[in-house]
């Protein structure tokens, strides 16, 4: 059995930051990447943790993302805050725009952060939680690259197109959900491929459009939207709002630009933020009313989304992140060799 090492969060975050600095990123950009990746490990979301570092470095090496990009913030008197990621990674662009988004939301009651020209690799719950920490509700979404067939179709056209929602709560954790609009995330299929295990039925098609449980065939074919036509419609909505509406790539265009799914997708992102108190207009306490609903859900024996993540977070903060020998060796190799490690 592989030995498990518990690595303190701060130490792991510094290691990941150093890896990206070695790859040519600015200190601030590298720190934003590390914060996002370590959050995935902290919350036991392995498909969005250190597993993602190799893909990030490979995309830098291929010249499809600018390692040293510095995001540019633009604001005016409107509710729209813009960040040009300048061809860099999304976490640094989000960090750049977050204070202005919070300020505009508090001033106007609602505001939007538009991120253009970024490369995205991460879960969105980390971003909506940054807004719930400020007492705001948030909705985030982005396209990907074309890996999902529309309901009734047989070829990739839509992205996995994740969407996340966050609602602030009085306690230490918000109400948060984050899911791909495909049946599963592409990273989960990749983990099945690495482990040599089959997919559950109903998740993917092969290159000829036939149902498959073989992760290799699924990666060469198409994933399916969750909920059939309903998930397909939501994925299309995200293409329209976070692609066409913000003047950025849709998933098909992102794949054409990359030419491969072996690299990370370049597109835009849309984050909407809401001030619950401003929307309530003094009629009631929206947070208290929300607690009544959430307590009723739990009172029936149901779990709220993200509860397993939050439980893992408590353990990781106390004990550190559990990493295998192979994961420790990977970090050592990436820190030593930088982007040469993924040549």
UniProtKB/TrEMBL annotation:
Q: Which domain of life is it from?
A: Bacteria
Gene Ontology MF terms: oxidoreductase activity
Q: Which UniProt keywords apply?
A: Oxidoreductase
Q: Which Pfam families match?
A: Ldh_2
UniProt similarity note = Belongs to the LDH2/MDH2 oxidoreductase family.
UniProt protein name:
Oxidoreductase
Organism of origin is: Paenirhodobacter enshiensis
